[in-house]
From TrEMBL:
Presence of keyword Amino-acid biosynthesis: no
Ranges for domain CCHC-type: 42-58, 61-76
Assigned keywords, A-Z: Membrane, Transmembrane, Transmembrane helix
TM stretches of this protein: 138-167
Name of the gene: g.131098
SMART domains named in the record: ZnF_C2HC
Descriptive protein name: Nucleic-acid-binding protein
Taxonomy, superkingdom: Eukaryota
GO molecular function: nucleic acid binding; zinc ion binding
Amino acid sequence: MPLFLVTLPKSDINRDIFNITELCSLKIEVESLRKKFGPPPQCYRCQGVFHNSNFCTRNPKCLKCGKPHLTRDCQKDINSPPTCGLCQGADTANYLLCPMNPLNRPKKDEKKKSTNEHRLKLQTFLKEKREVRTTRPVTNFTLILCISCVLLCLSILSYLLSLLYYLTWISP
């Protein structure tokens, strides 16, 4: 039987969806989504988190010694201590208490999350800068460019006039 995911906002009316047992003459069962708990997925190739090794194109990194080779090709002795490829500590890269594990990173401060103050300061600074520089100074290069454009237009116009004169002179 196929599964369908329906996302509804939390409200008293939407809770009634759990009471539905039949839909279009079919018996159905409505369940709430079970959230996954635990560490995020980790790639076996590069030891990075939040992706897997199926489509990973990053350089390989060993789980045991942190050197740039696949873990299955590691020649490290079993009795020697591991070296984390993420934090360079004395643990393996899949150790749950590694400081580079996203679950163990410190939470960002609210001040760091809201960058609106910095954005507003930057916008006012740019606005003031634009107001100061309202007119662009005319340089010799722009004058030469304008004159060359005018001369080009005049030469094209002269060519078209001579062509028109020639065509009217030839036709009876």
